[in-house]
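Re: the 320-residue chain
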Amino acid sequence: MLTKYEPLHLFPVPSTMSASMRKALYPSGSKDDPRDADVLLDLLLQHRNKLRRLSPDTEATRRIQNLVEERRKLVDEKTEHTNRLASHLKIYFPQMLNWFEHLDTELVCALLERWPTLEELQKVPPSKLRKFFGKHHCRNQELTEWRILAIRQSIPAIRDRAVIEAKSAAVKVIVQLIRILLEGIADLDERIEEAAAAHPDFFIFKSLPGAGPALAPRLLAAFGSQRERYRNAGEVQTYSGIAPVMEKSGYSVWARAYYRQQRGKGVDQHGAVRALAFKWIRIVFRCWKQRVAYDESKYLAALTRRGSPLVAVVAIAKDL
């Protein structure tokens, strides 16, 4: 986290080193946070020549890392407000959750900002609703007509004016916040796209199946640009806890086959995804280390040369 800030000079201290020094200075074996902090400070001041400074990454990489982090914060905030919106609507206007698959859209926000209650929405003429949906890029005429009919036929969940007034007022505020966050996320997406396109390593992560405009920059931010930081894929796995998995790994024939193979062995969904994640990180690490784009055909050829049992599963998956 701290490597994103160039002015900070970071010195990673191996846990074994601090533990040995603590044992030498405090034979009793007792430890607490202030004492451990003193040990770390002594190591830094008295034995800095034994530590290796963690150099900051390139400005291009740190730019992407910071942009990606801020985008994630805005997305989390949007999710929080969307959950609040759903909670309010369930009480007095639950039909909205059936009419629209996602509440955090410009369409839903604009609709609730103008007509925050079912009563107000039912007063709108069908022609005006069609114009409204068309203005907000609803090209599916059948879906539009279904929504208009559903609006006409709906029955209010409650008729308590005190509750409806309070909830609808809060909903109008929440949708305004969501709209602002949507604009902010869109702005960051443009900045991330620009920064990623200018980065010399982006082609590696862009080549991965299913790694779209949101995930590919996140992968780049996670790996960074310092090849000397990791000696092998195992260190990346240890650092990350678990490798990121493309949600659309189904675009990869071998990844889909490998997942099905794991499930067929009785491995639960979480275990299968984790196993696939570790497999992906070894592949991404090799591409990143060698500065080459991912090539599905080359990987499948390598599996064949090694006589991997996954080849047979891949053949079956291609036939499905």
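The chain has a mean pLDDT of 88.
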